[in-house]
């Protein structure tokens, strides 16, 4: 049953099986979510229930099909839910994953027998959270809906160290005990009360994948054409439902590439809408000007949504409530404010918003330069001694001196997968690792780091050192950031599309050898820069990189501004000793807070707020 969106919850989906129709269907769902789901009575096997406020729903006499997100064929033809069912690609028993591309959660429910299947594409933003609650199978697409349905709200033990290390609960874990997530590429089947989950798709090379030995005019053209085809299918799928695709245009290389692809897939007369948030701080003016210039180049109707420092606390509270999990970065309340503005002032047809999240990790992070040097010298005997000697030729304040010494420290640790200095463990780790070790112990911290590395092994297990490091970041930090952004937009009745997380985008990227993909000399993201230089008039590739964050100001607020009172109101969790908490709080008085200890304190602040507002609030 598709219903009108609830203003308090935004868009959401819930389905599952219950043997308690009187309690769960006639009391819990109506009183907590305000819904009356479609129900199929299977007698002793239980009652199937289904409800969604959005997505593409197709119902026949035999099945109910659901598509959250956008899908297409491997040939880049958009696929509706009806087409998926009619072509036998989606059934209650299985899914033909090899014949489906896109960014979607797909489900097919039988109306004749107690059976259904759910498939999550690579790397889908729409999520599946699932749990067994008093013998009932409950599935939702947002953590907030799931938290509302829990009889007892408790924090997942594995998620706590993950939050303090990575700022997110990763992989299969959610922030809630006994509430799990389906991984991308997994097939979830429920058959007569038996649950089965298996991986049916990964990112390892397929025989039909393209291969390019170098970056030249021919390979760059093929890369861009493949990206254009994918974007065209997304736009076609959105337009089929009467929706408009707009772009979150920051003005950097990545979002400019997205806008270029949108423009080339639209008629010249079609409107081109773009949006960005504008944090009214001196340090953010460069980012605002970036977006303004990009909008001029690509001729978009650009909307800036102002975010003022006085609004940050309220936005942070709304974001935590809307997500029902901790805020991870200072950018999230701003993205939430952007979605809220769009929902308030734009027509419902402006529904899908493209984001360039993931482009950095696919095409070259700044750390690629360091990793490239490590790869070149790691097997040279005494290379660490040589680098320390070379570092002495630079001044004491030189960044090159610091980088060479850092690499020299890393080299002896590369053979130890658990080393706290190994890039596989330091990439996208936002914390003071020594504080984390004192709080959780080495066994717990190493297990969390090992679990994150295992995600890369599941999907790729690359033999390339530089690719492995990038993919660890891609499958954790970049992916989780994109998921959170989509959840924030769902709370406002909108959806995000992230093409750089699309399986075909990833395979096109991997067509190039890692040494070509990530670096050209010292230039990172060379392939994207060549596309812009070849197919647009933008000079963005010649400009210094801007940033969509304002951590310097965030730490000022923690020291003497909006967040200071919240810092001193933190309730000490059991895993932090009194002396450790006092030491962290004393950090606020130090001249500099933008350091690993400061980030641990920020993670503690967001965790404390989540625990008080969501977990303790639900218990109360």
Uncertain stretches of 5 or more adjacent residues: 1-7
CATH architecture group name of the largest domain = 3-Layer(aba) Sandwich
If strands are numbered along the chain, what order do they take across the biggest sheet? Answer: 2-3-1-9-8-10
Shape: globular
What is the radius of gyration?
Answer: 24 Å
Strand pairing plus helix content: what structural class? alpha+beta
The percent range for strand residues is: 15-25%
Number of helices: 24
Number of domains: 3
CATH homology-level superfamily of the largest domain: HUPs
Helix content: 40-55%
> What's the overall average pLDDT, rounded?
93
The level-1 CATH class of the largest domain: Alpha Beta
Intertermini distance: 32 Å
> What is the fold named in CATH at topology level of the largest domain?
Rossmann fold
Number of strands: 19
Largest sheet: 6 strands, antiparallel
């Amino acid at each position: 049953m598709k219903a009108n969106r609830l203003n308090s919850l935004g868009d959401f989906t819930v389905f599952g099986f219950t043997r308690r129709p009187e309690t769960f269907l006639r009391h819990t769902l109506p009183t907590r979510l305000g819904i009356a789901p479609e129900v199929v009575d299977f007698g002793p096997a239980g009652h199937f229930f289904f409800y969604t406020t959005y997505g593409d729903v197709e119902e026949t006499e035999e099945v109910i099909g659901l598509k959250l997100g956008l899908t297409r064929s491997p040939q880049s033809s958009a696929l509706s839910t009806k087409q998926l069912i009619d072509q036998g690609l989606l059934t209650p028993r299985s899914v033909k994953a090899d014949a489906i591309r896109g960014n979607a959660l797909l489900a097919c429910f039988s109306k004749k027998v107690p059976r259904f299947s759910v498939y999550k594409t690579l790397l889908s933003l729409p999520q599946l959270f699932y749990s067994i609650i008093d013998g009932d199978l409950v599935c939702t697409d947002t953590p907030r809906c799931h938290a509302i349905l829990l009889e007892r709200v408790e924090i997942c033990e594995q998620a706590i160290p993950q939050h303090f290390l990575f700022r997110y609960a990763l992989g299969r874990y959610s922030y809630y005990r006994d509430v799990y997530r389906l991984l991308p590429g997994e097939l979830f089947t429920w058959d007569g009360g038996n649950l089965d989950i298996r991986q049916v798709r990964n990112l390892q090379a397929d025989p039909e994948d393209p291969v390019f030995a170098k970056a030249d005019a021919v390979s760059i053209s093929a890369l861009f054409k493949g990206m254009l085809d994918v974007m065209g299918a997304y736009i076609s799928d959105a337009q089929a439902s009467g929706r408009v695709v707009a772009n979150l245009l920051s003005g950097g290389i990545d979002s400019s590439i997205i806008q270029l692809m949108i423009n080339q897939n639209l008629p010249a007369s079609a409107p081109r809408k773009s949006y960005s948030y504008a944090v009214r701080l001196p340090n953010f003016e460069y980012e605002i000007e970036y977006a303004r210039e990009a909008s001029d180049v690509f001729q978009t109707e650009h909307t800036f949504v102002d975010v003022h420092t006085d609004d940050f606390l309220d936005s942070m509270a709304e974001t935590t409530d809307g997500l029902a999990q901790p805020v991870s970065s200072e950018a999230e309340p701003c993205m939430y404010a952007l979605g809220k503005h769009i929902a308030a002032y734009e027509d419902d047809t402006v529904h899908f918003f493209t984001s360039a999240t993931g482009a950095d990790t696919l095409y070259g992070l700044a750390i690629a330069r360091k990793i490239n040097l490590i790869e070149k010298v790691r097997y040279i005997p005494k290379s660490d001694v040589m680098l320390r000697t070379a570092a002495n030729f630079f001044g004491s304040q030189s960044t090159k001196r610091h980088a060479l010494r850092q690499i020299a420290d890393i080299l002896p640790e590369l053979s130890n997968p658990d080393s706290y200095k190994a890039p596989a463990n330091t990439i996208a780790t936002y914390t003071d690792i020594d504080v984390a070790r004192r709080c959780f112990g080495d066994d717990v911290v190493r297990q969390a780091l090992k679990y994150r590395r295992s995600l890369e092994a599941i999907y790729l297990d690359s033999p390339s050192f530089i690719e492995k490091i990038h993919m660890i970041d891609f499958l954790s930090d970049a992916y989780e950031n994109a998921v959170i952004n989509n959840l924030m937009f769902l709370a406002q009745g909108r959806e995000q599309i992230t093409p750089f997380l699309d399986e075909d985008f990833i395979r096109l990227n991997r067509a190039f050898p890692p040494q070509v993909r990530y670096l050209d000399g010292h230039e990172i993201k060379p392939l994207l820069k060549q596309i812009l230089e070849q197919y647009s008039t933008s000079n963005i590739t010649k400009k210094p990189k801007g940033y969509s964050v304002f951590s310097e100001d965030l730490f000022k607020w923690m020291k003497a501004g909006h967040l200071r009172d919240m810092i001193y109101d933190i309730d000490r969790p059991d895993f932090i000793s009194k002396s450790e908490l006092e030491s962290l709080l004393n950090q606020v008085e130090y001249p500099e807070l933008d350091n690993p200890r400061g980030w641990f304190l920020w993670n503690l602040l967001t965790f404390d707020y989540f625990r008080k507002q969501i977990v303790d609030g639900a218990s109360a």
